[in-house]
Design goal:
The complex is a heterodimer of chains A (254) and B (432). Chain A is an alpha/beta fold. Chain A has helices at residues 16-22, 26-34, 64-75, 84-89, 95-103, 141-153, 164-170, 176-179, 196-199, 216-225, 230-237, 242-253; strands at 5-10, 36-39, 52-58, 77-83, 132-134. Chain A is globular, with a radius of gyration of 19 Å. The chains are: A alpha/beta (254), B alpha+beta (432). The complex binds iron/sulfur cluster (SF4). Iron/sulfur cluster sits between chains A (13-14, 16-17, 58, 84-86, 91, 137-138, 240) and B (60, 63, 155-156).
Chain lengths: 254, 432
C-alpha cells in the first residue's frame, strides 16, 4: 500500500505545536514509518510539491503571503487539520486585532473587512475549509496521536467537546472557582489538557479555547459578583484564544 | 566570476529564514541572513497586562525555550517588585532550566544539527542514523519529564509565578526521577565522545567563532544569575551590559541586529553554549571535563561548528546538576507573596541559545507599562553573518554546493531561533 503523504506547515506561531509532534518521541518514529513525511522544514530539508493526503497547519494568518500559502495548501490537500490555538483561533497574536480596533475607537466586534489586512491575526478556518481542528496552546501529544491514528483508520477523531470542569471532577480536584474564589475559566473551556492548571492549584487560563455552547456571560456575571472589574474580566478572556472566546460571546448575543 | 548561494527556506532551524550570499572574484560581496518570519508584536500585547501574564505570554514567543522566557521574566518581575525568593525556589527553578537545556540541546544536537555532519536531509533519512536519533529521543524525553513534573507540560509549563511556584513537587515525585537521570547522565557522556569524534581528521574552521559573551558565576555554572563577561575579559553588571549594546535595523531582516558599542560601528558578538563552555569550563564536574579532554580537543573551542560538542557537554552538566538538586531537596519550596507595585526590573538568564534579556516597567497595580526583550538570536545575528563571511573568505576554493552546506552548518551551529528574534518588530513603524 502506498503510504499517505503528510505535510506539516508553519504560519505565524511559536513552533510549540510542531515541537509537540517531535515530542511524540517513540511514536514519532512510527509516524515516520507509516506516513511519507513529505514536508516538515522544522526537521527536514526535503521539500516536495504536489499533493498531500494530510496537511497539518500550525500558526495563524497575519500576513497576506500566508493567505496565498494556505489556499495553495488547501488546494493540494485531501485533509487539512489545524493544530493549536494559533491555527485554530488566531493565537495570542490575535490580541493585536482589538488593539487596532480600539485605537480607532470602533466596536470590539471582529470586523470581516479587517481580516484581509496585515493588522489582524486570524485562524486558518477564516480563509479556507478546515476538516478538523485540534485545540490547545500547545496541543497535547494524545490529541495528535489520536488524530493521526484515526486518519489512518479513516475515522473521525474522538476529542472531548465538554468543559474542563468534567476533567476536574473525574480527577477529584477540588473546584478552585468555588472553594478559592479564583477566576477559573474551566466552565467555559474545552477539556483536553487533563486539568493541568487546577491540579497545580491554579485557575484555568483558557489554553484550549471555548467549548461549544459555552455560556461566557453567565461566568462573567459570577466574576463580576466576586469583584472583578470589566477590564479584568475582559483580560481573562483575552489570551491565546481571545478571538474564539470573543466570537462565542458575540454569537450568543445574536 | 560571480557566484551566488541562495537558500530559499532554511530547514532544521526554528522559524522562517533564508540565506543569500554573493561572491565576486573570490570576494564576498553580500551576506544576507533574511528573516521573514512574521512578527508577533509581543511588546504592545504586554502593555497593560498584570505581571503573571508576562510569564505566560512571553513563554509563547518560543515553544522550544519557554522556560527561558519564564525565567528571565520572573526574575525581572521580582527585581521590579523588590522581592527575593528562598533557596529551595531558586533550586527548583534551576532544575527546571536543566530540563529545558536537556530538551532543547538534545533536539538540536540529534535532529537539527547532527544530520549536517552526515550529509543527510533529516534525522530519519538514513537508517544508520537510527540509533543516534533514538538516543536523542531518549535524552530529550528525560528533559521533558523534568519539565512535565515541575511545570505540568514540557511546552509552555504553567507552574511559574513571581515569588515561587503554584505548586511545588513532593520529595517522592522528584526522587522517582533519579534512576532515569543517572542513566541519562551516562548516555550524555557517550554523546560528548560522539560529538568530539565528528571532528576527527576534520580541518578546524578557524575564526568562525569570535567575540564571545556569557553570564559567569564564580561558584556555579551560570544559568539564572551571574555577571556578563566577554572573552576579552571585561565584566559588566546585567544593567550595564544593556547600556553598552546597541540594537540596529538592517534592511534585509525582520529582526534587529545587536552589537557592542565600540567606536563608530557596533561590534558583533556571540552568545550561547560555545561562549558559556569557554567561559566556565573549569566549573564543570570532573567526570564531564575528563570525558571532553580524553577526546583530544583543547579549549577554548573556536570552531563554531563545535557548538555541537558544547551542547553535549551542557546536556551532561544539566543531568549532573539535576541529580544534585534533587538529592538536596527537602520537600518544600514555599512561595513568597508578591505585592504588585510600581517599579522597573531588568534580568538576564542563560537560555539554551544564550543570554536572554528582559526589562520591564510596571505601574502601581503591577501592570506592564513598557517591555523590552532581546533574545539570544537577535544578539547573534550580526555575528552569524560575520562567521559566514570569514568562512567563505578562507574557503572560496570549494564548489558552490560545498560552500552552501558549509554555510548552512555554520548557521545551524548557532541554533538560531527565528520566531524568538522577530517578536518585537513592528514592520509598519520600522522599529521596535
Ligand atoms: S498554539 Fe501555542 S504552542 Fe502552538 S504554535 Fe501557537 S503559541 Fe505556540
Amino acid at each position: 500500500m502506498k503510504k499517505p503523504r503528510l505535510g506539516i506547515f508553519k504560519l505565524t506561531s511559536c513552533d510549540g505545536c510542531q515541537l509537540s509532534i517531535l515530542n511524540l518521541e517513540e511514536e514519532l518514529l512510527r509516524v515516520v514509518e507509516l506516513f511519507s513525511l513529505s514536508f516538515f522544514p522544522m526537521a527536514s530539508d526535503k521539500e516536495l510539491g504536489g499533493y498531500f493526503d494530510l496537511a497539518l497547519i500550525e500558526g495563524s494568518i497575519s500576513e497576506s503571503r500566508q493567505r496565498e500559502q494556505v489556499i495553495s495548501v488547501r488546494e493540494r490537500s485531501r485533509y487539512l487539520i489545524t493544530i493549536g490555538a494559533c491555527a485554530t483561533s488566531g493565537g495570542l497574536q490575535a490580541l493585536k486585532n482589538w488593539a487596532v480596533l480600539e485605537s480607532f475607537k470602533k466596536s470590539v466586534y471582529p470586523d470581516p473587512a479587517l481580516i484581509e489586512s496585515l493588522s489582524t491575526s486570524t485562524p486558518v478556518s477564516d480563509h479556507v475549509y478546515v476538516d478538523f481542528e485540534i485545540w490547545g496552546c500547545p496541543v497535547t501529544g494524545d490529541a495528535l496521536s489520536e488524530t493521526l491514528a484515526c486518519f489512518l483508520l479513516d475515522k473521525r477523531p474522538t476529542i472531548p467537546q465538554y468543559s474542563l470542569c468534567m476533567e476536574c471532577k473525574r480527577k477529584a480536584i477540588p473546584c478552585i472557582l468555588v472553594s478559592e474564589g479564583e477566576p477559573c475559566l474551566g466552565p467555559i473551556t474545552r477539556a483536553g489538557c487533563g486539568a493541568l492548571c487546577p491540579s497545580f492549584s491554579r485557575a484555568c487560563y483558557g489554553c484550549f479555547g471555548p467549548r461549544d455552547d459555552a455560556n461566557i456571560d453567565s461566568l462573567m456575571r459570577w466574576f463580576e459578583k466576586s469583584g472583578y472589574s470589566g477590564r479584568e474580566r475582559q483580560r481573562l478572556l483575552d489570551t491565546m484564544n481571545t478571538y474564539a472566546y470573543r466570537r462565542v460571546q458575540i454569537e450568543k448575543k445574536d | 566570476m560571480k557566484r551566488r548561494i541562495n537558500v530559499k527556506y532554511l530547514s532544521r532551524v526554528e522559524g522562517e529564514g533564508a540565506l543569500i550570499i554573493e561572491i565576486r572574484n573570490n570576494e564576498v560581496e553580500k551576506v544576507d541572513l533574511r528573516i521573514f518570519e512574521a512578527p508577533r508584536f509581543f511588546e504592545p500585547i504586554l502593555r497593560g497586562r498584570p505581571f503573571q501574564d508576562v510569564i505566560d505570554f512571553t513563554a509563547r514567543i518560543c515553544g522550544i525555550c519557554p522556560v527561558a522566557y519564564q525565567m528571565s521574566a520572573v526574575h525581572a518581575i521580582e527585581a521590579a517588585m523588590g522581592v527575593s525568593v528562598p533557596q529551595p525556589v531558586q533550586d527548583l527553578r534551576r532544575l527546571m532550566y536543566c530540563g529545558e537545556w536537556i530538551e532543547s540541546h538534545a533536539l538540536h544536537v540529534h535532529f537539527l544539527h547532527g544530520p549536517d555532519f552526515f550529509g543527510m536531509e533529516s534525522a530519519w533519512s538514513d537508517r544508520d542514523y537510527g540509533h543516534i536519533a533514538q538516543r536523542g529521543m531518549k535524552l530529550k524525553g528525560l528533559g521533558n519529564k523534568i519539565l512535565a513534573l515541575l511545570g505540568g507540560r514540557p511546552v509552555h509549563p504553567l507552574s511559574v509565578r513571581p515569588g515561587g511556584f503554584f505548586r511545588w513537587p513532593e520529595k517522592k515525585e522528584l526522587y522517582q526521577l533519579l534512576p532515569d537521570l543517572e542513566k541519562g547522565f551516562d548516555l550524555s557522556l557517550e554523546c560528548i565522545s560522539w560529538a568530539v569524534s565528528l571532528f576527527e581528521g576534520e580541518e578546524e574552521i578557524k575564526d568562525t567563532g569570535g567575540f564571545m559573551v556569557s553570564l559567569h558565576n564564580p561558584d556555579i555554572y551560570a544559568m539564572n544569575t551571574g555577571t556578563v563577561c566577554t572573552s576579552d575579559g571585561i565584566t559588566y553588571s546585567m544593567g550595564e551590559f544593556t547600556k553598552v549594546i546597541e540594537e540596529y535595523q538592517v534592511p534585509h531582516s525582520n529582526a534587529l541586529h545587536t552589537g557592542i558599542k565600540t567606536g563608530s560601528t557596533p561590534q558583533p558578538f556571540m552568545v550561547g553554549p560555545l561562549s558559556r563552555i569557554n567561559m566556565s569550563f573549569t566549573s564543570l564536574p570532573e567526570k564531564v571535563k575528563s570525558t571532553v579532554l580524553q577526546g583530544g580537543i583543547s579549549l577554548p573551542l573556536v570552531d563554531i561548528r563545535m557548538s555541537i560538542i558544547a551542547r553535549c557537554i551542557e546536556i551532561s552538566y544539566a543531568f549532573h546538576e539535576a541529580i544534585n538538586i534533587i538529592q538536596g531537596y527537602d520537600g518544600t519550596a514555599p512561595h513568597v507573596h508578591v505585592e504588585p507595585k510600581e517599579g522597573k526590573g531588568l534580568w538576564i538568564t542563560e537560555a539554551p541559545r544564550g543570554m536572554l534579556i528582559h526589562s520591564y516597567e510596571f505601574d502601581r497595580k503591577g501592570n506592564v507599562v513598557t517591555a523590552r526583550i532581546i533574545p539570544p538570536t537577535s544578539q547573534n545575528l550580526a555575528h552569524i553573518e560575520k562567521s559566514l563571511r570569514n568562512y567563505i573568505e578562507s574557503n572560496h576554493h570549494l564548489t558552490t554546493k560545498a560552500l552552501r552546506s558549509g554555510c548552512e552548518n555554520i548557521i545551524r551551529s548557532y541554533d538560531p531561533c527565528i520566531s524568538c528574534s522577530v517578536h518585537l518588530i513592528d514592520l509598519t513603524e520600522g522599529k521596535s
